[in-house]
Amino acid sequence: MTWLKTLAETYDVYSYLAGVEENDQPVLLPVSHSTFNAQVEVVIDGDGNFIDGRKLEKGKMMVTVIPVTEDSASRTNTKAPHPLCDKLCYIAGDYTKYTGDNKEDYYEAYMEQLRDWASSEDTHPMIQAIYCYLEKRSLIHDLVEKGVLELDGNGKLTDEIKLHNQGQTGAQIRFIVYGSDRFGETAVWKNRELYQKYIRYLQKTKGKVHLCYASGEMVPCSDKHPIKIRNSGDKAKLISGNDTDGFTYRGRFTTKEEAVTVGYDMSQKAHNALRWLIQKQGYTRDESAFVCWMVNRDMQLPDLMKDSMNAYNGIDEFDLDFDSMDLFETEDNTDQSGEDTGKYFAEQFGYAVQGYAAKIKFDDRVAVISLDAATTGRLSVVYYDEMGGTQYIDAVLNWQEHCKWKRSVILEKKIDGKKRMTLECTPAPRDMALAAYGTQRSEWLDADGKVIRSTVKRLLPCITKKGVKIPRDIIKSAARRASMPESMSEFVWRNDVLSVVCSMIRFNYEEGDKTMDNFLKENKNDRSVLFGRLLAVYDYMEQRAMFEHEKDGTYKEQRMTNAKRYWNAFSSRPAKTSQTIKQNLISYEKKLSDFERKRFEDWMEEIMVCLVRSGYDNMALSEMYLPGYYLQMEEMKNMFKKKEQ
Known about the structure:
By secondary structure, the chain is of the alpha+beta class. The protein is 41% helix and 15% strand.
């Protein structure tokens, strides 16, 4: 129950934003309120007289805050009217007349509920005006007269005419009440005084009290908790015990109250805060939701579901001025002066990260929660953690520093119109899951949603808890995928699989003073690393031999090298397969220049001398051969590049 209490505390911190709609930002709902998508707006005066009606444009209908009861907030096919704004069948007294569908009991239930609020001491002039108008039973008639709704040849409301893909009979209505200045905001869904009036009215109608398991207090409790947590169409609940056949708690408790009870206010605040946080800064994909937030104050945190270069995008406290970087990207990531723009950008980014981290206070509190769809109607909390602000930022910076690798990323903020840049960055957790279990479909990797959710959940502690390593089975699976370059395009294999698995290996490899800065020299006795280096020499030798130029200076299309065609066999039987690859390279060696041939021979001789001592045999290679391959390839490319310059 800690997560409920923490979310309720977060709601109290941001309570001043409840019901405030600003700059197309998500709305933090007041207690006892929800949202729906209205298609029609009705305008009346303070005396309950109809003034106007209009269809809402699609962009303006999305967020309509409405008061709700426990029953109406979770209704499906039950007769449970909302207290104010609702569907035509509830609020239109002439609904039966214009549709032929007898919904008189719906209208009566709605009016009885509205009458009780309008006659209470917590009433509001808007409520009295709306009640006075709806008593006239002329809503549909007035809307037809204004041309908002249309009748068929029989004088009935027809669903063949749609209001934003919704039939006319199911239209949802909201109100504007024009009156004296004391009304304040004329739109009922924006009037904060009206919010507070309804909250006080509803609190006085609460019944018996129970022990709230989250707060430990005796308060009015709720057994019907909010929905719409991940999105406006989400019907799954985090807390539910509506199984009357006893399957939910059979064998443990007699009633659901014995299992757990949560205070109404506690539930409302926690669910509204969670919904708002997910919409504002959360990650929702593959039927899961993840959000990380500062509990005690308004400060944005890096998005852990993105790669390190995009994790800080949109954070006000992150001082990185993209516009001041007069850079543009070329094929090799250099500007006109020959400087490495990727390196320069990474340096500036690093300074900005350090500046942001310095703004975290010692007493800050950070919470992380991950939700998963247990069934179509149930959500489960699969991961929750709470920690100090400095502890959290230290863990995140440790993750981003030791799990980075060179790859091409799309920057969400453009630099002179260019979005993609090659630099060192930490992959997103989903990228790691795809590298381990994905299959290329079209231009990108894809995988089963359940597998992705499960893998991302297992990676979360590696990010938020310093010292937790990436599970070996995930790395091994990604290494197996990287050992099959023929099964995907060159770019996807190198950028989305090989680079990602190397970054995961680096995170587990680096510890304390141990880094990968001198990985090749420090692992001259590791046969897997040595075989990976040998494979890189074979691969690049053939690539250099196939570098045939067109007249305009560009390279002709190249086919897959022998090293990549035999890659999977090489990872299982390296000694035998290396002989096959070397035999196939004899004809290519003739195309190399004397300098190129000499350099490749020197590399092979250096590696083979070490391999003979370490074990030149057919034992399967560990995943360490992959960074051996990658770093040897980088070393060779840099050497030839310097020679050509």
